[in-house]
């Protein structure tokens, strides 16, 4: 397993993402299989697990807590798992998700996360999304007491701009940012990634396989009943463009590396910067079967250019993950 240093700890550069384990936006998620997935990740050398209370109204954190308890019962240690969770998103009674980074909501979420995770500290505590109603400096100030007591060991942000990160850093130390980043969604290359790279801040790239578009199974004829039905990438006419690009990338990976598009997509991420961690979403142990094939090889400059050419040829109407942006509180 390739590793980097995050908040003074050695963590795997492939991390387990638990959005799907939460089950609220995804289908066919089994609790026992989800817990087994966490334990399988540990057996593969993946020690960083990213979660959030908004994933299934706490279900993902609860399942991770169960996996941690089983790991410890089997003789493992709490420190074997680097837990990264978040705060700052609130689901309203009408199911609408809004940002809420107020100090009161932060304190409530932290208590609930610690209870569900069955631990007395969180390795990395991240603001899930910037809240336009709460200045970043105020968010940082509210976090400092929890950092001082050790209830959280390090602080991170998610979906934040360089200006927002800089404002946060004027008050508190920043260990990481978690942006959307994959072969199909590269907006952070303009400013976010250069900023974090220049300071050695880790980038936890979410949706590393672009909601399965880069897993090698989606075609132009695929249909979806989960959250992907609202994603413009998964709707015509864009779906055909992205599916064609994935197929061409798959051919490239096979002919040049004897790998598949999934392996190429993860390797591409890891080779973009030494500070990147790829968040690999999974909710069944078999979803992690391909991890080893992403490691131990690299893409050179000519391969990176060939990949860019494939993307430019097939994707004529690109779109980012903006559909996932939460709403703003009105009260």
Structural features:
331 residues; alpha/beta; TIM Barrel; eight-stranded parallel β-barrel; three-stranded mixed β-sheet; 10 helices
Structural summary, described in words:
The strands form three sheets. Strands 3-4-5-8-9-10-11-12 form an eight-stranded parallel barrel, surrounded by four helices. It has a three-stranded mixed beta sheet with strand order 6-7-13, with no helix packed on it. β9 (155-158), α6 and β10 (176-178) form a beta-alpha-beta unit. The protein has 331 residues and is α/β, with parallel strands linked by helices. It has a single domain, classed as TIM Barrel, CATH 3.20.20. Helix content is 37%, strand content 15%. It starts with a strand and ends with a strand. α2 crosses α3 (59-73), α8 (238-257) packs across α9 and α8 (238-257) packs antiparallel against α10. The protein has helices at residues 19-22, 31-43, 59-73, 103-117, 136-149, 162-169, 192-199, 238-257, 261-272, 301-314; strands at 3-6, 9-12, 14-17, 48-50, 82-87, 89-91, 97-99, 124-127, 155-158, 176-178, 202-205, 276-281, 327-328. It is globular and about 55 Å long.
Which helices and strands appear, and what pairs or packs with what?
Elements: E1 3-6, E2 9-12, E3 14-17, H1 19-22, H2 31-43, E4 48-50, H3 59-73, E5 82-87, E6 89-91, E7 97-99, H4 103-117, E8 124-127, H5 136-149, E9 155-158, H6 162-169, E10 176-178, H7 192-199, E11 202-205, H8 238-257, H9 261-272, E12 276-281, H10 301-314, E13 327-328
Parallel strand pairs: 3-4, 3-12, 4-5, 5-8, 7-13, 8-9, 9-10, 10-11, 11-12
Antiparallel strand pairs: 1-2, 6-7
Helix pairs in contact: 2-3, 3-4, 5-6, 8-9, 8-10
